[in-house]
Amino acid sequence: MLARARHFLLILLLAAAAPASAQTLERQVTHFPEKLEIGISTDEISITSDFRGADLTIFGAIDGFDANLLAQGKYNIIVTLEGPKDNATVRKKERVFGIWVNTQSMTFELVPEAYSLSSTRDIATIAPPRDIANMGIGVDHMRLVPLGFFGDGSNLGEFRNAFRRIREQNGVYQRDPGGVQFISSSLFKASVRLPANVPNGVHIVRAYLFRDGLFVAAKALPLRVIKTGLEQAITRAAHEQPVIYGLFAVTLAVITGWGASLLFRKD
Amino acid sequence: MTVYLPIAELSVNIFIILGMGAAVGFLSGMFGVGGGFLITPLLIFYNIPPVVAVATGANQVVASSISGAITHFRRGTIDVKLGTVLLGGGLVGASVGVWLFSILRRMGQLDLTISLLYVVLLGSVGGLMLWESIGAMRKAAKNLPTALRRPGQHIWIHGLPMKMRFKKSKIYLSVIPVAALGFFIGMLTSIMGVGGGFIMVPAMIYLLRIPTSVVVGTSLFQIVFVSAYTVIVQASTNYTVDIVLAFVLMIAGVIGAQYGVRVGQRLRGEQLRALLALLVLAVGIRLAVELVIPPEDIYSVVSAGFGY
Description:
heterodimer, A: Immunoglobulin-like, 6-stranded mixed beta sheet, flat, TM_pro_TauE-like (chain B), membrane (chain B)
């Protein structure tokens, strides 16, 4: 029971993911000599008008490794990129009087809007599935808690599965077992793909180090995804000055319509 | 070439949007309609979220109606008094519509409501227009006179209280049916992103008996103001007006309209109406089919951004 509680604490710390909590985490697992360091190629991704997705490269190093274990390939790394969180509603359609209507819905509380996972190999073979699940690594183990849900829970599974499947189909949830490669004895490189429909906000890059099936250390870094230039100005105006934005949209329409009639007038 | 739509939050091919705008502009110029009833479904078919499609469609209607409204104003074919009563009803209707829009969106029934309204309205208006124009074409073929149908001079509408004199239209009419018509059209503008001319013009002619000479101008007058108001209210309550999408559509639309007008002038009235009717029916049927056939995926996911 105690071990379980500690595990839960660990997950909470991971979820908090600020650099400060990452340090606390390191202190907790001092009985392992290995340390994990990571760095990302950029800490800011800009969405411009021709944005079609981006590749993010994460570099990392294992300090204080055991050369024997390394040679045997006993070190494994999982790198995740988790997007900003928001509530998400899954709706199910049913045929009512011949037409398809949304009849049931379930809202999951604060789920990441994007999630990419890269690893040295299939995560199921890196550590016991129960440990991976407890740490909440991977789309299959993502915490999907229904908001204000009082039903019998019989359909919880189908809604969770539908949610994961649709997010994976949209490309916002993805996995790449083999996306993490060792480039020298203890240096590794992970590439994570950001889809074209990547949400704005602060994403968190997390790296987990496993030694022979045991969790050793984790590190987290923030990555900001922002709309730039005109796109950002438009989004900000639309949300911060909506009335002026609306008036501007109308003015633009009036000028366009009127201008065209002047331009094309025959007489 | 792709362009990122900041409000719809997705990348689209700019040439497809330009093509859509130009095609709808061409048709709207040819038939003398605003084109909102074509642009909104087309955007939805192209995976633009319906909430964005509707609000942006209303913005496109402003651009496509303004030049017509100005022309009619110069010619003096707008009954401003009648238009103002229509507009009063329209503004209230648009406000109620935006409110309903938000509620339906929260309930997850907005897309269905938009599709159902389109199917019902396009189906019935298209059907009636087709029926009427085929009849007119048959008569023309038999060399019969093609007088506009003007059944019985008085119906119940003309017995309503609160009558008002509309000098320009030369009618003495209760303000209730006028404001009610404006209200109904205003609601359609904010829920469906249409100007509503395709319903308002026949309603004014056949129900209110307003002389045809002022009908089009007066309806355009009310459409410009109600859709402009809808854009502002949608922008400030639902944040769903995508100015980039709207701008690309309207640039292509106004240019397409100029060519459409030229083609339209060469066609006969009843042929034009029959073609428009077929077009309206086709869009309606396409949407109806979508409602009936089993969806690819019975589940859908919306994140809070667009879900609420």
